[in-house]
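Narrative of activities, Objective 1.

The group set out to show that a structural description can be obtained from nothing but a protein's sequence at a throughput compatible with the screening campaign. Below is one input-output pair from the validation batch, recorded exactly as produced.
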Amino acid sequence: MSYIYLNKYKRFHHASQSPDPLDPYTLSLATLSLASKSTESPRRLRELLLPAHRLLHRSPSSLRSDVTRSASPISNPLVVTNSLTIPSPAYDALRATLVSAELLLLRVLGFELRIPLPLDFLDRYLSRALEDVAGAGEDYDEWDQETREEYGVVARTDTGLARACRSKAVEACKNYRLANFFPARAIMAGCLYLVLQQHDQTRLLDEGAGTSVGSQNKERWLDDITSAKVDVEDFDEALQELRKI
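Output recorded for this entry:
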């Protein structure tokens, strides 16, 4: 989600053609903070500011020493390197800056934080893609944990295909064009299509679906997977962008 916020802010800034009021570090922390709230896993600002400050102000010698020795536990988690402590004027100033950045980012987003993500559709689309595979129709949810372990049954979202789709979808969220100009459904359908091709699972794309873009077989596969909620032109353009990353 933070990547989506980041790319939408970049789009706003490019369109405004005015000096950017946020430096990259503050913007990154603001997107992380808002993303944690919108995904119902909020974090205190100190949980973002202290690690970020520690990483940004570490000396080259300390970085080298970390390679040769394991990090010792911090006796007081509220005290970090370079004297950033809580409370302190430095921390209060950083916190106020981050709060202001969040408010600016909220206005840029139009206070719309619940933006659909490609990953929201992963399980649904993958389930439909695997429906015709032998044994895929069996309800493994009814199996107890011992039986699952005996037969090596894993959750659908833990399969190799799902992990590959998830990785590609995250990379898509980092992409400026995909994050700003393509619907999440089209991106996830494109990720699934490419992953199935890369894993030599073209049989799951229906017979002949691997032919040229715009084929009737591909359109039928797309309608089946997305319940006809993705326009084939959006899908084809998303595929072109996904192949570049």
